Amino acid sequence: MAVIACVKESSMPYNTATVIREEKKKYIKHDQLFKELINNFFVDFLEAFFPDVHEGIDFMSIKPLSEELFTDLIIGENRRVDIVIEAKLKGKDTLIIIHIEPQSSYQKDFHQRMYNYFSLLYNKYRKPILPIAVFSYEDKHTEHNQFIIEFPFFHVLTFNFLMLELKKMNWRDYLQSDNPVAAALLGKMGYREEEKVQVKMEFLRMMLKMELNPARARFINDFFEQYLKLDEKEEQELMREISQLENAEEFTRLPNSWEERGIRKGIEKGIEKGIEKGKIEVVLEMLKEGLSIDIIAKVTHLDKEAIEKLRKMN
After folding, report:
1. Model pLDDT for residues 131-164, shown as the tens digit of each residue
2. At the top level of its lineage, which domain of life is listed (predicted)?
C-alpha cells in the first residue's frame, strides 16, 4: 500500500499540486512478447490466472481496442497503455474495459503509473475499468497493488488493481493444466536452476497433451524457449530422458530448439558433401570481402543456393 499527499507546502503565497513525472523507459522487447501472448491467448490467460474474472466475462462480446497512446499536455509526455479490451459481463449489457499491463522490469512507483492509466482510460471511455498488472522480471520484489490519496483529515480515494507476480508462482501447480498460456509461462515462474531440465520436460508433456495447431504450438514453444534456455549438456540430459519414454516418438512432432539445431547440422553436412572443403574456405573469404553471390558463383562454379546457405550460417 502506498500513501501520497497531493498538496505540498510552498514558499509561494499559495499551495501547488505535486506533479508526478513518469520515468521514461526504453520500450522493452519482453513487454512486446507478453503483449502478443496475452492478445493471442486472452481467454486462456484469464482462465489460468484470474478464474473469477474468466467466469464473469462474456467472451462473445470481447473487442480488442487499439493500443492507447495518451499525451499529458501539462507534463508534455506520451504514455502508452499496452492491452485494452472491451467486454461485457455475463448476463448483463454493461460494457467494461479490461486493461492489462505487462511489466518486465521493477519500477518503484509502478502502482502509481497504473492509477494514471486507469484515470486516462476512464476519462476516454467513461466505462468501468478492470486493471491487471503482469510482473515478469527475474528478481523478487514486494509489489503494491494499491494506490491511496489521503490527508490526515480526509481520505480521498483507494485504487486497487489485480496483479500476477510470475516469479513468486510455483511451476508445479500447473503441470496438470492443458492451458497454453500456463505452459508458455512455466519458464518465468519460480524454479531452481537444477530444475530447468525437468521444467522443460514437463512443458513438452503439456504441449503433447494440448494438441495445438502448428502455428499456435510454434508460438507457445518460441515464447517458452525465449526465457528458459538449456545448454548443450542440459539438452543431452533432456534427450536421454525423452528417449526412455514409451511415447518418445511423439515428442518429435513438437517444435523445439534441437529441431532447429538438427536442421542446421543437416545443412552443414549437406554443404560439405556437395562442396569441396577448400572451396568452402574460399567462399567464406570472398563473402567476408563483400563480393556478391553472383560473382562468387561465377568464380567457384558453385550453386548460388549453397553459397547463400553458407552466408546465412556465418
Report:
1. 999 998 887 788 889 999 999 999 999 999 999 9
2. Bacteria
